Amino acid sequence: YDHIGQLLSLAKIQMASVDPGKQQEARALMKSSDQLLSTAIRDLRRLTKMLTPKGILEKGFSLVLAEEAEKLERSGLYKMPVSVKGTAWRPDPTRELILFSILQYYIMEALFSGSRRAVSLSVRFKIRSTAIRISYLSEKENIPDTGTTISEGMMKRARLIGASVIFRRKGRSNSILVEIKRNANDPDCTGG
Q: What is d(CA 87, CA 124) in angstroms, rounded to the nearest whole number?
């Protein structure tokens, strides 16, 4: 994520600007760089722990998405409100991991293709399916489909898990709807 890169870049700049002849200033810069590196390492550890298959399967895709959105907002670089409605159910583990990878792909596409780095995410659990809508604004109205589109790879993944992906554009408004059908063995759950 960008904020980790920014922390590391700032630490590198601070370390490069150390003047050995100015001991007190050098110590202060080194201490500040050490704090920046510690924060970056801590955030990187949290990120890798969260986005492992085990982390996703323990918490569920909707909770992990909400936590990731919160982290993005805390960085101050992005806005990503999340809405979750309905009684949560989770696909079997293999389908859940594939679903998460599809959602992660389209959220990143939306964040980097949209204006003001703002994306909204809506998860609606229904009895027979779950619909996840990723919405964002384009920089310009009616731009050609060169940014976020439905890639063939994502369509194959969606078909593999019994999901559909629909991309809609109206003016500057864009939405990607991912809907996954519920199988008979997908149980209700709490928190995910």
A: 9
